[in-house]
Amino acid sequence: xxxxxxxxxxxxxTSYQDGDDFPAPPADHPLVLQDLISNDFATWxxxxxxxxxxxxxxxxxxxxxxxxxxxxxFLSSGVVRTAQRENRPQQLFRAAGSAGGRFPLELxxxxxxxxxxxxxxxHALVRIGPAAGGEATTLVVTGVPWRTAWRYAExxxxxxxxxxxxxxxxxxxxxxxxxxxxxxxxxxxxxLVGADGVHEFPLALVALGDGAPRIEPGGTSxxxxxDHAPRELPLITAAQRAGDGAYAVGDPWPAAPTPPTDxxxxxxxxxxxxxxxxxxxxxxxxxxxxALTYALTPASQPHYIAVHGVEDVEPGLYRWxxxxxxxxxxxxxxxxxxxxxxxxxxxxxxxxxxxxxxxDRLGDRxxxxxQLDAGLVEGRLHLAAYALGFGASGxxxxxxxxxxxxxxxxxxxxxxxxxxxxxxxxxxxxxGTPTSVVVPVAGLTLPES
Length: 449
Description:
GO terms for molecular function: oxidoreductase activity. This is SagB-type dehydrogenase family enzyme. InterPro entries: Bacteriocin_Proc_Enz, Nitroreductase-like. A hairpin with an 8-residue loop joins β10 and β11. Helix content is 27%, strand content 18%. It folds into two domains: 239 residues, NADH Oxidase (3-Layer(aba) Sandwich); 173 residues, NADH Oxidase (3-Layer(aba) Sandwich). α3 crosses α4. By secondary structure, it is α+β, with helices and mostly antiparallel strands. The relative contact order is 0.17.
């Protein structure tokens, strides 16, 4: 097969079509599970991995000002909110947003004293393996496909990379000197963290210091359990493995821009997914420009903006970086409502940012990177929106309708709605003191992040 063929097959088989219901019916293909029941609370996945009690465990300071690493880990992946609904398991919400509240990421720290897993609820490090070769303390981000596929089936592979990008936008904002890598030896990084490459696999690395990332396995790491009975989704396994390789660590991604806030911790704890926006409210042009400049300047993929309610900016469709001259002037609210699968946020937001890509130009590894890039944009839009006093939410979309909207034969990656909230959400809590919140019943009205 040609490099990228598996990614294109995966994308086609997980694309939503005009007229689909939610959850969309499974595609008729041997790699697609036909018997998966989405949102089945009898098979509710673990919210994070579990390890044997006899592994060394180190509590991290709850005062985040005492330890930069503890602060970085908690504000990237720590539990900041909880929700309890009748006859359902408790739901844990982490500091960075996640599609459908699934939080399918695990975070590891490889440093001089060994490889550690970050416990997002206890705010602790568990040593799972010996020290690895290399110089720089390195974060390893992995994805657990079953945890998101429980809701989104095979489409959950996209969500792994969107969620990783969303979280890494916060990580890189908190540690501006850190270096993000997406080219590395997949098999070695999988061994490093004790993953199996099917139910859990590495998505990205972040080096926190100078020198080579500390990722050469120094021995065997404990495996832990991603779930009591995780299901493999063969299409996701195929898509991930098609992009795997024994890569030498490549060049880091461009440095993250500076977020528009002096109090990043406060912004992250206030950040959430805004589920209702005021269609009658507008955003100032200066704030619109500031948010897009911060979010999109480093982006490697095309991005379009549907403007509904920005002061002194004509409603219509724009393509970054020209955010003042519309490609298509006019009111697009109803069109975006349909494109966003009749979810009100597509219509009520002040503007909607839509990531896109030339699918035919991507190899299998590049496809993963394009999805991660879209997640980084979403994460930066969330930070910018909350820093500027607005709200934001990731959004699902009907893939088949997207080319007609933008006027090009492009594949959609990820949408983010930015607007004025119709309510004020509770800020998240600190380590060990998550805020209790009420969330809507899961269904089509629950946005992607």
